[in-house]
Design goal:
Blueprint (H helix, E strand, L loop, with lengths): L1 H9 L1 H45 L7 H23 L6 E11 L8 E11 L5 H27 L1
Antiparallel strand pairs: 1-2
Helix pairs in contact: 3-4
Length: 155
């Protein structure tokens, strides 16, 4: 107890306490400076992201819109119009490529085999690829419209 009293009287304990408070203050200031720097970097990145997004969604005359619309119309014709037209022509032979897969069990220890064949059907054949194309094109148009609207409201 006498040693602590002597240290207190000499000012060493006060100096140590001051040093600890100073170090904590410097660490706090450094942490605040780093936090501010991170916020500034994030703000710059967000501004850059918004600018890039705005440039990407600008409507330019590159033909992309025309190509997408032709694809959408073509898919609609294949799905919506052709089945009704070809319903009256039941004797038209259509060659359809088939693929049979077998094997591939036990995580690849038994290899997978694929067998291609051609089957002839009468009438109009609606491939799954056309259905998937139509669904993807519709969702792309809807998604692009929603995204464009959301970014225009966010400005």
């Amino acid at each position: 107890m006498e040693a602590i009293s002597a240290l207190w009287d000499s000012g060493v304990l006060g100096g140590m306490a001051t040093m600890i408070v100073t170090i904590l203050g410097q660490l706090s200031a450094l942490n605040t400076q780093k936090f501010t720097s991170v916020l500034e970097t994030l703000q710059k990145q967000q501004t850059a992201d918004v600018n890039v997004h705005n440039e990407a969604f600008k409507r330019t005359g590159d033909g992309g819109v025309l190509t997408r619309r032709i694809m959408l119309i073509g898919a609609f014709v294949m799905l919506g119009v052709c089945p009704f037209i070809f319903a009256f022509f039941k004797d038209i032979p259509v060659a359809v490529e088939t693929l049979e897969q077998s094997g591939g069990w036990l995580w690849g220890l038994i290899p997978e085999k694929e067998t291609f064949a051609v089957a002839y059907v009468k009438g109009f054949y609606l491939a799954d690829v056309w259905k998937e194309l139509m669904v993807n094109l519709i969702s792309a148009y809807i998604g692009a419209g929603i995204t464009r609207k959301a970014f225009s409201l966010g400005k």
